[in-house]
Automatic annotation (TrEMBL):
It is an enzyme of class 5 (isomerase). GO terms for biological process: chorismate metabolic process; salicylic acid biosynthetic process. Keywords: Isomerase. GO terms for molecular function: carbon-oxygen lyase activity; chorismate mutase activity. The keyword Transcription does not apply. It comes from the Bacteria. The lineage of its organism: Bacteria, Pseudomonadati, Pseudomonadota, Alphaproteobacteria, Hyphomicrobiales. Its EC number is 5.4.99.5. This is chorismate mutase. Residues 5-96 form the Chorismate mutase domain.
Amino acid sequence: MAKIAADCTTMAEIRENIDRVDHALMALFAERWSFIRRAAEIKAGLGIPADVPERVREVRDNAHRNAETHALDGDFYEEIWAQLIEHAIAYEKAQLGEA
């Protein structure tokens, strides 16, 4: 049963809800990845390279700011996003035939 953390009184409830949130996060990551796949298709048609440094900086800055908005460690989540971006760029490079 979905609960907020403050309403959990046992470790079983904590674990159940962490697993629920993790499942929801994976669904959001899957949705995010659908946009990465589509971006590669659009970039191919427009001749845009996989790595666009200005956009990379913007996405990292957004992650940092969004984390802090939720009282999270901005540096930590920016680094997670850096890994997501690196993975996406590698995928796009492969799709675009970039070295």
